[in-house]
């Protein structure tokens, strides 16, 4: 009988060690990036579609264009994605933007992407893609403004293109 008890005790001990050895030692997985708890309140607050006008500036150009849109959306990782659309020039997409609260509204920082420009003069290459970087952006209760720089838009020596989007009515030259 003693041998049977010792054998049972040994079987129970081995079973307990096996259970502990096969336990889950992995740390908790990273939180789901789409979890609303990982997205800043400032990023959530600025999401939306903004309508307005744009000023495009290069060495040889300084023109205003009406009826443009600027959309801010949340990415899977919780940062902001800005999409700027102009019917004539094309579409810029800037990712990795972060918003922070200020005394007057929100400031948007960081962000890089590309500007896919329309090129109607070349039917074989109807678009061209250029690097684009957010320079500054602010959003308040009554105004949104975004400025970005398109690198190497013109040939060497002529510089970059800057576009500044603003909500509201486009100014006119009439006085």
Order of helices and strands: HHEEEEEEEEE
In the CATH hierarchy, the third-tier topology is known as Lipocalin
The class by helix and strand makeup works out as mainly beta
> What form results from the Cα inertia axes?
globular
Q: Determine the strand fraction and express it as a percent band.
A: over 45%
Under CATH at level 1, the class stands as Mainly Beta
For the residues shown, what is the average pLDDT? Answer: 79
Give the tally of structural domains.
1
Q: The biggest beta sheet, please?
A: 9 strands, antiparallel
CATH architecture: Beta Barrel
Uncertain regions spanning at least 5 consecutive residues: 17-21, 28-37
The tally of helices reads 2
Report, as a whole number of angstroms, the end-to-end distance. 111 Å
Beta strands, count? 9
- Gyration radius from CA atoms, angstroms: 28 Å
Share of helix, binned: 10-25%
Would you kindly provide a written description of the structure presented here, covering whatever features stand out?
This protein is 15% helix and 46% strand. The chain is built from two helices and nine strands. Strand 3 (80-86) and strand 4 (90-101) form a beta hairpin. Strands 1, 2, 3, 4, 5, 6, 7, 8 and 9 form a nine-stranded antiparallel β-sheet that branches. With 175 residues, it is mainly beta. The protein has helices at residues 2-21, 41-46; strands at 48-57, 62-74, 80-86, 90-101, 106-109, 112-118, 127-139, 144-150, 161-167. The protein has a single domain, classed as Beta Barrel (Lipocalin).
